[in-house]
């Protein structure tokens, strides 16, 4: 008799999971509480999978042998609670797909920087000629890719929500970039719960695995004391000299990676992405390459010619000597801290949107040092005005991307930068952060 599988959520991961489950002989039912996008409906219909939208047929779902749920559905959802009470396994698409993949997994998580680092490592592996796929919290569904043809390597970006639904999965190389308060509403507003979620990237790793982590993080080194870690540990730091791992030689201004008594060096000025946070991303990527014994010259090339993703510290253009930078993906204060920290010019900062309970105090010193004026882009900007009113020369308000760009351009002078790094969600004025970034770029190019 076929094993019955219910898939909750008919987005990229859910539809990919359905495709793989069919291939592996499951009886598949897909259910989504929201309306399913037409492109996914047509895929499901083409697969002859039974599906429903704008409802959950609880009896049908709870009679399944196993449930795959979208990362967006919290464990506290009533249907998930009922499944747990019944003893029905509830897993993520990543957990499911990994059962059917023989690949070597390099997995990246962290509160900030994981997308950039994932793409950087993927770029490095591609350049080395490895048979590699890119999946997880980015790009095409992991399950879909496994269904269509397994790879020798997968680089997986993993959110805490995905990690929460992973139990038997084992990373070969695990990268933990940082842990800062985020998504605490999903973790009973307890930081220790969120930290434990991120540390799940270590589960099932053995002595053949490698764990790459930021040695200067506020939470990671302390959390590691609570785990029996069999994997080989490779820390990275710009403040400590490390016998093994990656560190910064401040005198030579070089990134240094020491692994198996071999040293790799590279000038930090040759890195494609500048700024302290991108140094960390480059360190983690370089370590992963050296663990696989990729050629030093190849790693040097990859770290120097990598192009960052859209909406993440993306150089848009220069207009009369003023640089415009799109960092719309910065939807929390910590991401914006990294953006401001990387700025080497006087900056007009565009900030605002839907505030997720932001504490702006960590930005005060950076704003005093680097920001000459602020443009608030949002419906309710009072909190930003109150926080920074006495720290910059001018604060102005805008309701559209075009208005924000025009005002920023008027306040900037040759040699300055205009930085869109909102520190907030986008839903008050835009569809999502991509829409916000695209409107910003369109407005800049129309100056």
How would you characterize this protein structure?
- Helices cover about 35% and strands about 25% of the residues.
- The chain is of the alpha/beta class.
- The longest helix is centred in the middle third of the chain and has 16 residues.
- The model has no long low-confidence stretch (mean pLDDT about 95).
- It comes from Acidiluteibacter ferrifornacis.
- Cell wall formation. Catalyzes the addition of glutamate to the nucleotide precursor UDP-N-acetylmuramoyl-L-alanine (UMA).
Which features does this protein show?
UDP-N-acetylmuramoyl-L-alanine:D-glutamate ligase; Protein-Tyrosine Phosphatase, Chain A; 9-stranded mixed β-sheet; 3 domains; ATP binding; Rossmann fold; 447 residues; cell division; alpha/beta; single chain
Briefly, what is this?
By secondary structure, this protein is α/β, with parallel strands linked by helices.
Secondary-structure map with pairings?
Elements: E1 4-8, H1 12-23, E2 27-32, H2 38-47, E3 50-53, H3 58-62, E4 66-69, H4 78-86, E5 90-91, H5 93-98, E6 104-109, H6 114-127, E7 132-136, H7 142-148, E8 153-157, H8 160-164, E9 173-176, H9 191-199, E10 210-214, H10 220-224, E11 232-237, E12 245-249, E13 254-259, E14 262-267, H11 276-291, H12 296-305, E15 314-319, E16 322-326, H13 333-341, E17 347-351, H14 364-370, E18 371-377, H15 382-388, E19 394-398, H16 401-411, E20 417-420, H17 433-445
Parallel strand pairs: 1-2, 1-4, 2-3, 4-5, 6-8, 6-9, 7-8, 9-10, 10-11, 11-12, 16-20, 17-18, 17-20, 18-19
Antiparallel strand pairs: 12-13, 13-14, 15-16
Helix pairs in contact: 1-2, 1-7, 6-11, 6-12, 11-12, 16-17
Domain Mur ligase C-terminal: 311-424
Function: Cell wall formation. Catalyzes the addition of glutamate to the nucleotide precursor UDP-N-acetylmuramoyl-L-alanine (UMA).
Protein name: UDP-N-acetylmuramoylalanine--D-glutamate ligase
């Amino acid at each position: 008799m076929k094993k019955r599988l219910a898939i909750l959520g008919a987005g990229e991961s859910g539809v990919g999971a359905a495709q793989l489950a069919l291939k592996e002989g499951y009886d598949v039912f897909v259910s989504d509480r929201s309306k399913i996008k037409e492109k996914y409906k047509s895929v499901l219909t083409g697969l002859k999978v039974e599906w429903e939208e704008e409802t959950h047929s609880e009896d049908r779902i709870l009679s399944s042998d196993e449930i795959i749920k979208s990362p967006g559905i919290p464990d506290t959802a009533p249907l998930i609670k009922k499944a747990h009470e019944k003893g029905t396994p509830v897993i993520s698409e990543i957990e499911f797909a990994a059962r059917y993949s023989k690949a070597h997994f390099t997995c990246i998580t962290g509160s900030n920087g994981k997308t950039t680092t994932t793409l950087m490592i993927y770029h490095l592996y591609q350049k080395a000629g490895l048979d590699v796929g890119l999946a997880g919290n980015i790009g095409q569904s992991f399950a879909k890719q496994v269904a269509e043809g397994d790879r020798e390597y997968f680089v997986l970006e993993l959110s805490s929500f995905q990690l929460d639904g992973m139990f038997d999965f084992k990373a070969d190389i695990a990268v933990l970039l940082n842990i800062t308060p985020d998504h605490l509403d999903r973790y009973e507003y307890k930081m220790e719960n969120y930290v434990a979620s991120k540390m799940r990237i270590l589960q099932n790793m053995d002595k053949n695995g490698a764990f790459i982590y930021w040695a200067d993080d506020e939470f990671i080194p302390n959390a590691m004391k609570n785990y029996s870690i069999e994997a080989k540990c490779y820390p990275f730091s710009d403040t400590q000299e490390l016998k093994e791992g990656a560190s910064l030689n401040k005198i030579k201004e070089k990134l240094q990676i020491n692994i198996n008594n071999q040293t790799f060096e590279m000038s930090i000025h040759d890195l494609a992405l500048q700024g302290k946070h991108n140094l960390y991303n480059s360190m983690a990527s370089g370590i992963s390459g050296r663990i696989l014994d990729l050629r030093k010259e190849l790693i040097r090339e990859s770290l120097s010619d990598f192009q960052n993703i859209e909406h993440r510290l993306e150089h848009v253009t220069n207009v009369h000597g003023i640089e415009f930078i799109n960092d719309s993906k910065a939807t929390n204060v910590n991401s914006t801290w990294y953006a401001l920290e990387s700025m080497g010019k006087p900056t007009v900062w565009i900030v605002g949107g839907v505030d997720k309970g932001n504490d702006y105090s960590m930005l005060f010193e950076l704003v005093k040092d680097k920001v000459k004026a602020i443009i608030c882009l949002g419906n309710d900007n009072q909190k930003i005005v109150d926080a920074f009113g006495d720290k910059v020369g001018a604060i102005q308000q805008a309701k559209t991307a075009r208005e924000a760009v025009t005002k920023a351009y008027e306040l900037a002078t040759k040699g300055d930068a205009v930085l869109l790094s909102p520190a907030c969600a986008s839903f008050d004025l835009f569809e999502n952060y991509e829409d916000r970034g695209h409107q910003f770029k369109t407005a800049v190019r129309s100056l």
